[in-house]
Write a structure and sequence with these properties.
This protein has about 140 residues and is α/β, with parallel strands linked by helices. The chain contains 3 helices and 7 strands; from the N terminus they run βαβαββββαβ. It is globular, with a radius of gyration of 16 Å.
Length: about 140
């Protein structure tokens, strides 16, 4: 069985690149964008991204969320050690972005889905073709690339 928060190949590449970046960069957060009517927050893609980053390690923070003055909830939800911020606004379909930071530089990796199901066809076919060769549960389409 293949379980994934997103069956888009480019979303799988986002996940793979982010895991690699987390091995070298100490600080990151995830931003989850979706249409205003999307009831779940964060999206499955952003949740899976945060969980996978948590398997690498926890990002460093100068100020822990519990020590934030004002409204700590403005720092987002802690998912597997990663702060995840969910925006729900008109004109978005669904996007996931991870922002890594180091002294004097940043790396942003983002996946944007279009308004049709087309981005999910190639990844779904990849998963269907892989199932007969797999034993047990494979978590994440990136594991099939």
């Amino acid at each position: 069985m293949i379980a994934a928060g997103n069956f888009s190949l480019t979303a799988a590449l986002l996940l793979r690149a982010a895991v690699e970046a987390a091995r070298y960069l100490d600080a990151w957060e995830v931003i989850d964008y979706a249409k205003s009517g999307k009831p779940d927050a964060p999206s499955g893609t952003s949740r899976e991204l945060a969980e996978r980053l948590g398997e690498v390690r926890r990002p460093t923070r100068v100020v822990e969320v519990g020590d934030v003055e004002g409204h700590p909830e403005a720092r987002g939800a802690d998912i597997a050690g990663t702060q995840v911020h969910s925006l729900r606004l008109p004109s978005f379909v669904v996007s996931s972005e991870v922002v890594f930071a180091a002294d004097g530089e940043r790396l942003s990796i983002r996946h944007d889905a279009g308004e049709t199901p087309m981005p999910y066809v190639a990844g779904t076919l990849l998963a269907i073709r892989a199932v007969p060769r797999r034993v047990g549960l494979t978590r994440g389409l990136d594991q099939l690339l």
